[in-house]
């Protein structure tokens, strides 16, 4: 694994936390998270399936162990992507603030952590538990998302800018050179344009229910598991 040597001689690792329901993991997740890893030069990414997502309809979310298995299979060729069961082990709703605190408590203090999220999810961040504290704790990487119905990324970023200033803090300032919003106290929010992959888990579940193919929407090895176990029928 790559390490970065600081002036002090201390090694710094750059780690991404990617939370979601992953019900199931799909080619959109796989493609964009690989791009983020490369774009931000991250050493490792933890994929963290939620137990009960506070912002989603929970009916239809399959067992966490099956979701974990599908994530493992999707990244079986790359050990830099690791599944974490921390949210599944906690009972009740999965709150990002608790997850970030958990990783901060177990990783070396000099680890540089990022929380990775799609634009659609970030645009609800002001409804997340203790979101103000969360933005003090960890920088966000917000990925563009084709499925928001807004293909024009210039407009997507404009909407994000208004949202950040009106709903989070009007002290966030846009830094074009760093492609992020910076704040005097809070952590930065980075904007990252990914290849548009217009796939969602909802669409995959619908396809399965209707007996339609999910080929190319999920990795082949995940498709095989879904078929063998009869998931989402
Ligand atoms: P559902 O359709 O069930 O709501 P989903 O496809 O949005 O699910 P999640 O597991 O909820 O998948 O997504 C986890 C994270 O990945 C979220 O931050 C979401 O915005 C992001 N994400 C999911 N699919 C894409 C995609 N195609 N492009 C960019 N980001 C994505």
Characterize the structure shown.
This protein is α/β, with parallel strands linked by helices. The protein has one domain: HUPs (Rossmann fold, 3-Layer(aba) Sandwich). 36% of the residues lie in helices and 18% in strands. It is built from nine helices and ten strands. The chain has helices at residues 27-39, 64-74, 86-89, 96-106, 119-122, 131-137, 153-168, 201-209, 220-229, and strands spanning 4-5, 11-12, 14-20, 44-49, 81-83, 112-118, 140-143, 173-175, 180-182, 189-192. The strands form two sheets. The protein has an eight-stranded mixed sheet with strand order 5-4-3-6-7-10-9-8, sandwiched between helices. A two-stranded antiparallel sheet has the order 1-2. Helix 2 (64-74) runs antiparallel to helix 9. It is globular. The model is unreliable at 1-9 (pLDDT under 50). The structure holds adenosine-5'-triphosphate (ATP). Adenosine-5'-triphosphate binds at residues 20-23, 28-29, 32, 117-118, 120-121, 143, 145, 147, 194, 197, 199-202.
Helix content, binned percent? 25-40%
Number of β-strand runs: 10
Count of helical regions: 9
Main beta-sheet annotation: 8 strands, mixed
Shape, per Cα inertia axes:
globular
Q: What ions, cofactors and ligands are bound? A: adenosine-5'-triphosphate
Arithmetic mean of pLDDT: 91
- Ends distance: 40 Å
Please give the radius of gyration in angstroms: 18 Å
Q: What is the SS-derived class?
A: alpha/beta
Strand order of the biggest β-sheet: 5-4-3-6-7-10-9-8
Residue runs with pLDDT of under 50 for 5 or more positions: 1-9
């Amino acid at each position: 694994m790559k390490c970065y040597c600081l002036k002090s001689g201390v090694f710094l690792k750059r780690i991404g936390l990617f939370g979601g329901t992953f019900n199931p993991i799909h080619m959109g997740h796989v493609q964009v998270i690989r791009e983020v890893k490369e774009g931000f030069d991250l050493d490792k990414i933890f994929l963290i399936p939620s137990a009960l997502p506070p912002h989603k309809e929970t009916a239809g979310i399959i067992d966490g162990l099956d979701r974990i298995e599908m994530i493992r299979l999707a990244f079986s060729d790359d050990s830099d992507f690791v599944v974490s069961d921390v949210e599944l082990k906690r009972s009740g709703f999965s709150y990002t603030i608790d997850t970030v605190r958990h990783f901060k408590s177990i990783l070396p203090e000099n680890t540089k952590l990022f929380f990775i999220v799609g634009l659609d999810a970030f645009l609800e961040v002001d409804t997340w538990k203790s979101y103000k504290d969360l933005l003090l704790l960890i920088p966000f990487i917000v990925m563009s998302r084709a499925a928001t119905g807004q293909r024009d990324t210039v407009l997507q970023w404009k909407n994000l800018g208004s949202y950040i200033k009106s709903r989070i803090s009007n002290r966030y300032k846009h830094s074009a050179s760093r492609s992020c919003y910076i704040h005097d106290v809070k952590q930065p929010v980075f904007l990252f344009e990914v290849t548009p992959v217009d796939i969602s888990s909802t669409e995959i579940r619908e396809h399965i229910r209707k007996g339609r193919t999910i080929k190319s929407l999920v990795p082949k090895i995940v498709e095989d598991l879904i078929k063998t176990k009869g998931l989402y029928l």
